[in-house]
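Any chance you'd type out a single protein's sequence alongside its tokenized fold?
>
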Amino acid sequence: MNTPIYYLFILALPVACVAWTVTKEEIFREAREFCIGRSKNCDKLIKRKFFYVFTCEYCFSHYVTILLLIATKYTLVYPDWRGYIIAGFSIVWIANIYMSLYNLIRIDLKKEKIRAQKEESELKNN
């Protein structure tokens, strides 16, 4: 293992960022809605699954990870194909932890915003 293990946590950051942005954020809403429709209405299973990948952050993170591994040649434990497989699943796992934490933070922020708006409207009414 020539590459430090902390690279695993660093490489998972862009995977999480890209996967979350494509599958959840407003900038890709139209493309995501198109993919959702195609994933439900295509006649062939392979087409439905292809379009589904762009609607699920977990699924999409696998493909982003593959591209990242090709670009960086990062391996984990073994310097050959086995290292790529271990690194791939490890990066996906860490990236999905990052996305889960981000989602929890966003939910808390939305709750606080709703509470603040409710209190503000109650103060205006009194």
About this structure: The two ends are 66 Å apart (CA to CA). The chain has one domain: 6-125. The helical segments are 6-24, 29-41, 45-52, 57-72, 81-125. The chain has a mean pLDDT of 91.
